[in-house]
Design goal:
Elements (H helix, E strand, L loop, with lengths): L15 E3 L5 E3 L6 H7 L1 H24 L7 H22 L13 H24 L2 H8 L2 H12 L6 H18 L2 H4 L13 H6 L7 H25 L5 H22 L9 H27 L2 H4 L6 H13 L5 H19 L15
Antiparallel strand pairs: 1-2
Membrane topology: Multi-pass membrane protein
Keywords: Membrane, Transmembrane, Transmembrane helix
InterPro entries: EamA_dom, EmrE-like
Length: 362
């Protein structure tokens, strides 16, 4: 980004008013489609990120179905190396200050974002390798609720009852879409991926791992992502999105390399098709993190994480197109609930508190 574009780091002025309960709200109401889009650009970034995230996860699932699966740490190294190179090249070309070290006043937050982001990423990749998509999705999608609560407690952001209800409804929609076996039992409608049933995949690895190990991996992802998303919001617009991605990719690469070295994990050299999938994971991951960072910089945590539930909708569509999985009636009902909840939050932005004052300093 050139110097002339630095104004993007500062939120625009808004007409505000104060309600009887003391909450500051927008007094200007969107009156047209362009106005609604402009006032919800952060949410649109987040929803767009979920599409590319679903594409990335589908690529990971296909990659795991190869004869010699690539370890999650190696996937992270390749993906984040691509992200790091892209970020640094972009910032050098656009003459963004401190392309690697980042702005001095938020470096500690950038480091926290990078480290917590690694654990969030590693947990979800490990879960996708060894748990059913349904079980992993439900557990990982505890992240939006935990992140909204963390934003309310740590960043003092407003978290209204309406937002809480929308979040719970979205989580209910996720459960209906994924129908995890630990809640619904075995699903005989063919709604699983071709690589085998969850029991078969777990049985193949029972000598080394236990199911609780992978459940713990899901919770590690939830806690890691909660810390990552909260730190992004705390950074706000005091750093360029590429700074945040640079720290994430750098720390993920360093920790993953150390992990492979300490654990003596061999490097897998996949087929040309496997390398193509790894490249797709890297590209989709870069676009996902860029859009997600830009969105979370513009939205409160409680609003922004609601849009993350739309990833389930994209996943259902992609599974239908690529794996031929036909969504059931419960999946359709769950998808409607998710979309309705996200749409409700978007259309009611005028009742939500303005961004914290820390975002007004750059």
């Amino acid at each position: 980004m050139s110097n002339s574009e630095s104004d993007e780091f500062h939120p625009t002025d808004n007409t505000t008013s104060q309600r009887d309960d003391g909450e500051v709200v927008n007094s200007s109401q969107p009156t047209s489609v362009p106005d609604i889009i402009a006032s919800n650009v952060g949410m649109l970034f987040i929803i767009s990120a979920q599409f590319f995230s679903a594409c990335m996860y589908v690529s990971v699932k296909i990659l795991n179905s190869l004869e010699t699966p690539v370890h999650a740490l190696q996937v992270i190294i390749i993906r984040m190396a691509i992200t790091f190179i892209c970020c640094v090249i972009y910032m050098i070309i656009m003459r963004i200050p401190d392309p690697i070290t980042g702005p001095k006043d938020v470096r500690s937050l950038l480091i926290i974002r990078g480290i917590t982001g690694f654990f969030g990423l590693y947990g979800v990749y490990l879960s996708l390798q060894h748990l059913s998509v349904a079980d992993a999705t439900v557990l990982i999608f505890l992240t939006p609720l935990m992140t909204a609560v963390a934003g309310s407690i740590l960043l003092k952001e407003s978290y209204s009852t309406n937002q809480a209800v929308a979040g719970v409804c979205s989580l209910l929609g996720v459960v209906l879409v994924t129908r995890p076996p630990f809640l619904f039992g075995s699903i005989p409608d063919g709604g699983h991926l071709p690589e085998g049933t969850p029991a078969e995949r777990l049985a193949a690895r029972r000598s080394t791992y236990s199911p609780s190990y992978f459940g713990s991996a899901c919770m590690m992802s939830v806690l890691g992502n909660t810390g990552a998303y909260t730190s992004i919001r705390a950074i706000g617009k005091r750093a360029h999105p590429m700074h945040i991605l640079t720290f994430l990719s750098l720390w993920c690469t360093i920790i993953s390399c150390l992990g492979m070295s300490v654990s003596n994990i061999p490097v897998v050299y996949p087929t040309p098709w496997g390398w193509m999938l790894l490249l797709m994971v890297g590209v989709f991951g870069f676009v996902t993190q860029t859009l997600l960072t830009m969105g979370l910089q513009r939205e409160t945590v409680s609003r922004g994480v609601t849009g993350m539930y739309t990833q389930v909708l994209f996943a259902v569509v992609l599974e239908r197109l690529i794996f031929g999985v036909m969504p059931s009636l419960l999946s359709i009902i769950g998808a409607v609930i998710i979309m309705s909840s996200a749409l409700y939050v978007v259309m009611n932005k005028q009742t939500i508190a303005l961004e914290s004052t820390s975002d007004n300093s750059a």
